[in-house]
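Technical annex, item 7. During the second reporting period the consortium partners agreed on a shared format for inverse folding records so that results from different sites could be compared directly. Each record opens with the tokenized structure and is followed by the designed sequence. A conforming record, contributed by the partner at site C, is shown below for reference.
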């Protein structure tokens, strides 16, 4: 078995990503209630008792809502960087010392048979980071919640076999929306979220012939549509001569477990 993963839920209402390789079974973020998280795991037929740990990208509630509950109920170790620990400590409640692990941004850690590389992103949180996962010569990149994709990040995430990539909003829809101007400004800023078009542009720089599929993630409920995100990203890629298998994610439904082959 190679790396397998599922985007359990994605969007501003809650994010959770599952990845496994052999006996190593990791959850990244637990942004929905404990009960909802259990339902999502049931849908992909993974037993939460077999989970080996939870990685945390940043402290926003759409990434940590069910974190404390799950960690306590299933006695799971949590991996986060120092600033994120401090920023989320009060929100997640009591945890045993033995459950708290440090995993700094821009470092590499092996958990079981998966090697994880963390990298910093620009986003309005204490010390947000996302990940490359490697096993058996395969690479999966998870990257959402960032204002822009820097050249440095492009180099780090280049040539993955699969991407879970943010396509947050359609710029036109956001500008026309009823959001207050300061919220619009935040989303469009370098510390906000990546638009459909910027997602396509960044992808066109990082995908290679190795890349088999891309999941578009963290779509705004108000300022995007699955169809529109797919079409926009596809158009940018096609203009650059790239044909890519684009997949949707959903705020409430997990994507089927996909094995990277
Ligand atoms: Zn988020
Ligand atoms: Zn965020």
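Designed sequence (site C submission):
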């Amino acid at each position: 078995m190679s790396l397998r993963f599922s985007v359990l839920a994605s969007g501003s209402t809650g994010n959770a990503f599952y990845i496994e390789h052999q006996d190593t079974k990791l959850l990244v973020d637990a942004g929905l209630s404990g009960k909802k998280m259990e339902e999502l795991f049931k849908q992909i037929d993974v037993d939460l008792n077999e989970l080996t740990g939870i990685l945390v990208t940043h402290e926003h509630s759409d990434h940590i809502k069910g974190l404390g509950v799950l960690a306590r109920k299933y006695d799971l170790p949590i991996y986060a960087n120092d600033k994120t620990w401090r920023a989320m400590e009060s929100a997640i409640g009591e945890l045993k010392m033995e459950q708290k692990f440090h995993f700094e941004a821009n470092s590499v850690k092996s958990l079981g048979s998966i090697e994880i590389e963390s990298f910093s992103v620009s986003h309005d949180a204490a010390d947000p980071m996302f990940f490359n996962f490697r096993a058996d010569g395969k690479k999966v990149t998870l990257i959402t919640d960032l204002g822009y994709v820097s050249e440095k990040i492009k180099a780090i995430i280049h040539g993955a076999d699969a991407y879970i990539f943010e396509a947050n909003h359609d710029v036109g829809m956001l500008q026309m929306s009823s959001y207050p101007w300061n919220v619009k400004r935040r989303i469009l800023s370098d510390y906000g979220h990546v638009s459909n078009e910027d997602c396509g542009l960044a992808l066109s720089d990082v995908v290679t012939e190795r890349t088999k599929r891309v999941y578009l993630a963290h779509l705004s409920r108000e300022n995007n549509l699955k169809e529109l995100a797919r079409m926009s990203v596809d158009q940018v890629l096609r203009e650059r001569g790239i044909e890519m298998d684009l997949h949707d994610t959903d705020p409430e439904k997990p994507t089927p477990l996909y094995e990277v082959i």
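The longest strand covers residues 114-120. The domain at 4-256 is CATH 3.60.15.10 (Metallo-beta-lactamase; Chain A). All partners now use this format for quarterly exchanges.
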